[in-house]
Each structure stands twice: as C-alpha cells, then as structure tokens.
Amino acid sequence: MQRELALKVDNINVFYGEFHALWDVSLEVEPQQIISVIGTNGSGKSTLLNAIAGLLQPRGGDVELFGEKISGMQPHQTVVRGVSLVPEGRRVFGRLTVYENLIMGAYTPRARKRRSTVLRMVYDLFPRLHERRNQLASTMSGGEQQMLAIGRALMSEPKLLLCDEISLGLAPLIIKDIYKKLEEINRQGVAILLVEQDINRSLKACQYAHVMLEGKVVLSGNPASLTLEEVKRAYFGV
Amino acid sequence: MIDLAQPIINGLLLGGLYAVIALGLSTIFGIVRVVNLAHGDMVILGSYLSLAFCMWLGLNPLWTILLVAPIMFCVGFLIQSVLFNRVLGKGMEPPLLMAFGISIIVQNFLLLVFTSDARALKSDLSMMTISLGEINISLLYLLNFLIGLAVILGLRQFFRKTFLGRAIRAASDDVVAAKLVGANTSSIYAYAMGIAALTAAVAGVLVGMTFIFYPHTGPQYLIIAFGVVIIGGLGSIKGTLVGGFILAMAQLLGAHFFGPGYQLLCGYMVLLIVLAIRPNGIFGKA
Ligand SMILES: Nc1ncnc2c1ncn2[C@@H]1O[C@H](COP(=O)(O)OP(=O)(O)OP(=O)(O)O)[C@@H](O)[C@H]1O
Ligand SMILES: [Mg+2]
Q1: Nearest CA to ligand 1 atom 30
Q2: Domain membership flag for residue A90
Q3: Average pLDDT of span B80-87
Q4: Is a pLDDT exceeding 90 seen at residue A237?
Q5: What one-character DSSP code corresponds to residue B123?
Q6: Local confidence band at A52 (pLDDT 50, 70, 90 cut-offs)
Q7: Residue B195 CB-half CA count within 13 A
Q8: A105, A123, A157 — which closes off a domain?
Q9: What is the pLDDT of residue B71?
Q10: Is A180 found in the same domain as A75?
C-alpha cells in the first residue's frame, strides 16, 4: 500500500502571461513532515506556494491534497480542504484589530464553529497576540505581525501550512522563536511546507529540502545527506 | 444672532441628508475601488420606487422605505455580481464606463415608465414645523437628519461588529489576504454594493419627500455626493458625516449672506478650499 501524502505536487508548470515561471516542479509532503524549499530571489518559491493555495492556476500538472486533486481550485476552496498560506510580506489586515484578524482567519463555516477553541490555542501559542488583541494590526511590530499572520493562518485549522519567507526582515532572536513555534505546530499534526532564502535556518528545521533555481527544482535531499557546499552551488547556480 | 441660527440649523439638518446621499458612493469606492457614477441615479431610482408604492398601495412615503430598501439591496447585489465583478482587476476605465452605462439605462428607464414630469413624494410632514422662539424647524428636515444619522450609525456598527462587516473591511484592506482566509471576494463585493444601494434607497425616499425630482435628477445628487466625499475624505464614514455638514452649511450660509443664487457657488468654494488645504479630504488618508 502506498503511504498517504499530505501534499503531492506533480510536474506543475506556471506561467505569468508568456513568462514561464515554474518548470515541471514536483515535490511531496508527508503528514508529519516539515519540508523546505530554498531559493534565491525570483527562483519561483512564492509562485509555487501561490499555485498550491489556488491564487495561481498551473497550466499542466497536478496538485493533490491527501489524495484529492486541488489544482484548478480557488483559494476559498483549498482553504476548506485544509490548506493555509502565510503569505510573503505577512499581509495582515492593517485596519482591523489583532482579534478581528484572527476572527477572519476562521472564515470557513467549519472553522467558525470551532472559533473560540482554536482562538484559545492560538493565544496559547502566541501570548503576545492575546496581550495585543485590541491593537490595530498595522501598528504592530514586524515580528508581531508575522506571529499574527501565522496565527491567522492557523485559525482555519489547516492540515497543511504553507509559509512564505516568514523570517524576512526579522531579528535573529525573533526568527528563532518563530521557528520554535512552527515545530510546535508541526508536532500538533500540521504538515508544513516552508519557503526561505536563509539556507541554514531552513535546513535545520526541515526533514527534506529542495533547492530551486529559475523556476526549476535543481537539488533535493534530506539535510543530513546534503553538504552545505552542494546546496550553495545549486542555490547560486554555479 | 437669531438671524444666523436659522441657516445654521437648517445646514446641520440638510447636512445629515447630504451625508446619506454620499454614503454609498464613499463605501463602494473605499471597498471595491469603483467610482460608481450611477450612484445618483440609484438614489433617484429609490425615489421613483417609493412613488410607485405610494400610488399603488396608498402608503405614506416614509413607510415605503421598508419596501424600497430591500428591493434596492437586491438591485445593487445584482449589479455588482452580474456586471461590475466581471471587470474588476482590468483597470480603472471598464467599471467607470459600466457605471456610466447603468446611469444612462436607469435614466431612460425612468423616463419611459414615469415620463419626464416633475414628481414629489407628498406627505403632511412637509408642511409641519416646530417653532423654537424665532427659529422654525421643518419637521421633514428634522426627520431627514434623524433617519440619515440612524443609517450612518447603523452602517458603522455593521462594519465594526458583524462578521460580514468585518469581512468587507478585510477585503478592502487586502483582497489577496481575504481570499487566502477563504473569503469569496466576488460575493463580498456584491453584498457591499447591495448595502450601498440600500443606503441610496433611504436617501432616495428622503430626497423625494423633500425636493422635486425628474428621471434625470440623479447626476445632481451624484455631484452633491462627490462634494461631500471630497470634503470628508473617501471611504471614511465619519468623513462622510462631517463632509455633509460642511457642504450643506456652506451652501445655506452662502445663500443667507449673498442671496439664493450663490448657494451652489459657496458650496463649491468651500470644496476648493478644503481641497487646497487637505487634498485627501478632512478624514482621508494621505
Ligand atoms: N505577477 C507577476 N507577473 C509577472 N511575473 C511575475 C509575477 N510574479 C512573479 N513573477 C516572476 O516570476 C519569477 C518567480 O517569482 P517568485 O515571486 O515566485 O520568486 P521568489 O522565489 O518568491 O522570489 P523572492 O525570494 O524574491 O520572493 C520571477 O522572475 C518574477 O519576476
Ligand atoms: Mg517570494
């Protein structure tokens, strides 16, 4: 019998108009795993996550979530099925309070029913969000906004969490803290697909890594078997 | 002093009406980023719907609000879901042209059904006044003010406290993020336009009870709405209220000092002054 996959991306191609942004990209995430994708600016990491979440539609190839085909769906359809994306640049609702941002995270009917329970869990995970619950999101610090973006994504009780450069622009200490939280989230049974530019950080956190360059996956392996030299060469394409 | 008190009170009361007239224009711009050129025509469509119910059912115009408002909600909802949603994200011009088209269609539809005769929503209210010493307060103006205020405060509460209201604000903050939490933004926009049309309906009934209207009166109220929104700042409910007061006050004080012919001119002068000092309006964001 085949092991069940949380996510299976099978040879997807994504275009922006004529521009071919992803070339035959494939990867797999198992239910208890943290998988990371590393790549430099413009290598196609965000494009990949946006295509999985349904913001972009791949032309050719399949995306499956726990065996169900989700490519071709809109974001509001993938969220219901358990995908949640922490977008690049956080994208919190600036004119809403922290509490209202979290409430919006529980948008789907199922999530809305379990809202108060999940809200308590998110507040437990990020006590800072509870302290600041009545503050406007736009007035929070960068690190706090990142916690909020993650907290909001968790409110839909995802089975698969997609994280797009959550360490961008944050101090090392805060990054360390946020990564600890991610591991905690993962232990509670959420599969995580992580996208980063920071090679060391993401190799340390994941069980399997892919390196992307110019829209293609150029190197894959588990962090123990990959040498830093090899990863850097693939990363910079030299 | 007593002399001035009369136009100031009238300005305040009229300002409440101006604010409801502008409310829908401001909300829709703030949320969907569409300048709804047909907003004035939706107001007047509300007036005519009320007229139809008055003639048909023999109701007092005030009660027709309860019928006209839900009908206009549906009209707005349909206009957004069938028309505007198709052209979103395709630049500024297509929705603008579409709104212009809707405006022309509504005007000609009204002309066809109701002819070009002058109309008014008659009620006993228009004759009644309350006297406070030397000052006379028209009961109708007072009612306009109170209903207008109630609609504005109600809308504010709706946006702050209800799930749909919060979702509408979230979508206006960041559409992509709203999609990512699972919102169907097309349907959110349709609700928003429905609500804007509902406020236009209330404005239409009040306007129709207060002034004479024709099928082509809409643009006149569009211009008032623009004035209010420019003074108060686009997308701000508080701004809409204050903008309404300032525009109405400027018009009535202008008429008081320089004669009725200067009413509109004085309104626009104040508008220009506000634009010069605060280009984004008093409560607009820089
Ligand atoms: N909306 C768009 N229209 C056209 N081209 C785009 C668009 N978005 C991304 N691209 C292009 O697609 C390629 C991949 O972009 P993507 O945002 O996925 O990169 P990334 O790996 O996330 O980079 P970064 O680390 O800088 O966020 C880039 O060449 C980019 O210019
Ligand atoms: Mg990116």
Answers
A1: A42
A2: no
A3: 94
A4: no
A5: -
A6: very high
A7: 23
A8: A157
A9: 98
A10: yes
Ligand 1 proximal residues by C-beta, below 6 Å: A 16, 19, 21, 39, 41-47, 88, 197
Q: Which of 154-173 (A) contact B at CB < 8 A?
A: 155-156
The number of distinct structural domains making up chain A is 2
Tens of pLDDT, residues A7-47: 999 999 999 999 999 999 999 999 999 999 999 999 999 99
Q: What is the mean pLDDT of residues B248-255?
A: 93
Ion ligand 2, residue ranges at CB < 5 A? A 46, 88
Cα(B121)–Cα(B227) distance, integer angstroms = 25
Of B173, B179, B180, the CB nearest to A95: B173
What CATH number is attached to the domain comprising A217?
Answer: 3.40.50.300
Q: How far is CA A232 from CA A199, A214, B222, in A?
A: 8, 15, 61
**Cβ proximity of A207 and A35 under 8 Å:** yes
> Does A136 contact B at CB distance below 8 Å?
no
- Facing B183 at nearest CB: one of A76, A92, A155: A76
Q: Can you tell me which atom of ligand 1 is nearest the CA of A39?
A: 21
**Residue A1: is its pLDDT beyond 60?**
no
**In this predicted complex, what is the ipTM?**
0.94
pLDDT of B286 reads 55
Distance CA B247, CA A131 (A): 43
Beta bridge partners of A217: A212
Residue B236 lies in a domain: no
Share of chain A above pLDDT 70, in %: 99
State the residue range of the domain holding A203. Answer: 7-82+158-236
Cβ of B169 within 8 Å of Cβ of A108? The answer is no
Chain mean position to CA A17:
25
Which of B158, B162, B169, B181 to probe the A interface (max A CBs under 10 A)? Answer: B181
pLDDT > 80? residue B172: yes
Whole-number Å distance, alpha carbon A204 to ligand 1 midpoint, is 25
d(CA A165, CA A89): 8
Smallest CA–CA distance from A155 into chain B, residue: B181
